[in-house]
Amino acid sequence: MVYDADSVPWCGLFVATCMDEAGIKPPPIPVRAKAWATWGANLRTDRLAPGAVLVFDREGGGHVAFCVGQDATHDHVLGGNQGDCVSIMRIARNHLAASRWPAGVPVTGWPITMAANAARGSTNEA
């Protein structure tokens, strides 16, 4: 498969590439954002340390990215295929479907409170 445009979903591929670089095994079909919803271990939303894998529901599928921080209503995430690039953006917390952490790896860090204007907002995550 060729990943050469925003029309091809590659957020899962970005997360999988980062995990592979860190020596952490991704889910069996990592290009599918929703595959990350059952990967690793569940992480409570009050423990969303930077680096947690967050999976979001969106029209037409899902989106996966890394937690950077949060404000009162949104999660701030570092992800691929966000405007056809790797970027940090805000995604409404009511779209959060799962928060995950690599199984067997201790959670390091703690939730980071961000200013609401620290990253651009998203309406589609693609």
- Widest sheet, order of strands: 1-6-2-3-4-5-7
Q: Rg, please?
A: 13 Å
Largest sheet: 7 strands, mixed
- Helical region count? 1
CATH topology-level fold name = endopeptidase fold (from Nostoc punctiforme)
Beta-strand content estimate:
25-35%
Taken in chain order, the helices and strands follow as HEEEEEEE
Task: Write the topology of this structure.
Layout: H1 11-21, E1 41-42, E2 53-58, E3 61-70, E4 74-79, E5 87-92, E6 96-101, E7 120-121
Structure report:
Helix content is 9%, strand content 30%. It has 126 residues and is mainly β. The protein has one domain: endopeptidase fold (from Nostoc punctiforme), CATH 3.90.1720.10. It has a seven-stranded mixed β-sheet. Strand 4 and strand 5 form a beta hairpin.
List keywords for this structure.
globular, 126 residues, endopeptidase fold (from Nostoc punctiforme), 7 strands, seven-stranded mixed β-sheet, mainly beta
Quick structural overview:
This protein has one helix and seven strands, in the order αβββββββ. The chain is mostly beta strands and 126 residues long.
